[in-house]
Design goal:
Structural class: alpha/beta
Number of domains: 3
Largest sheet: 4 strands, mixed
Order of helices and strands: EEEHHEHHHHHHHHEEHHHH
Number of helices: 14
Length: 296
């Protein structure tokens, strides 16, 4: 939203003066709503409203959202108790956008199929990126209802995209030259522990930022290799956040008198950089979407 954009208020039922929360669309339309209603229909809002409110925040919070008002209005109307009419769309494109917004988190493959069939390249790419959260996509168990509506070539492109993203994500952990060359990175226990280095003298080295090739601790090497395998099958941020090998690495690091002092801080810091770099690597993989000639 532009700073000079004039803010307006949405039509009924989202203009109630007794509201306790405002959702501001990307095109500067304020939707007056109620925390209770939003918390009942959205677990995201429910969790958000349980957080303590900062004293400096306004009495009625304003939450910016990425959807335009043409999408936000019918989306909110679907779950609004006082709405007496069905949502009305200004165009087929708006209806498509609403469907993608509502069902993408759970039905990414179906949204991909519908988007390919309709020639919606933008939504197809978004759905394909979300499908990276599906582990081992391409196995027979990954079939979905919309598969019959698209060509084998469309599905092949999706599998190829998933595979190439897995290769790119796994490669991130094979060299850590992307880490920032700061003193705190240089001093991390994963490659500076004097106790572990005595044990790991004959182990392979890996590039760390611009500090050269350094010998990494066995517990950290195991974490990099294991998380890389996981990313090859499920190349997304959630894989790193949910990896059981993260806790295993911490548990093994505690066996070292030196590593145990800083392992929680160092590994958490590394994981944040790791996630960012994996997302960058995945973003470089291009999914080619062909417009369905039957619809033109």
């Amino acid at each position: 939203m532009s700073e000079t954009q004039e803010i307006s208020t949405a039509p009924a039922p989202f203009n109630n003066p007794d509201h306790d929360i405002v959702l501001r669309s990307v095109d500067a339309v304020d939707f007056h709503n109620f925390k209770l209603i939003l918390s009942l229909v959205s677990p995201i809002f429910k969790d958000m409203f349980t957080l303590p409110q900062n004293e400096s925040e306004p009495a009625v919070p304003i939450i910016p959202v990425t959807e335009p008002s043409t999408i936000l209005y019918p989306l909110l109307l679907l779950s609004y108790p006082s709405a007496s009419a069905d949502p009305v769309f200004n165009s087929i494109d708006d209806a498509r956008d609403l469907i993608a917004t509502q069902f993408l988190p759970t039905y990414s493959l179906n949204i991909y199929a519908v988007s390919c069939l309709a020639g919606c390249q933008h939504h197809a790419r978004i759905a394909a990126a979300r499908s990276l959260e599906i582990k081992g996509l391409g196995r027979p168990s990954s079939g979905f209802a919309g598969m019959g509506a698209i060509s084998a070539f469309d599905y092949h492109r999706l599998l190829k995209y998933h595979y190439e993203c897995g290769i790119a994500a796994q490669a991130v952990g094979k060299s850590l030259e992307w880490l920032p060359s700061t003193p705190s990175i240089n001093d991390m226990r994963m490659w500076r522990c004097h106790i572990c280095r005595r044990v790991a003298l004959d182990r392979p080295t890996i590039q760390i930022a611009s500090f050269g090739k350094l010998t990494i601790n066995p517990w950290f090497e195991e974490y990099l290799v294991a998380s890389g395998r996981e990313l090859a099958a499920r190349p997304c941020e959630l894989t790193i956040l949910e990896s059981v090998y993260y806790d295993r690495a911490i548990a093994k690091a505690r066996d070292c008198l030196s590593c145990r002092v800083a392992v929680h801080h160092d590994l958490a810091t590394f994981r944040n950089f790791y996630i960012t770099e994996v997302k960058k690597a995945i973003a470089k993989v291009i999914l080619l979407i062909m417009i369905n000639s039957n619809l033109t």
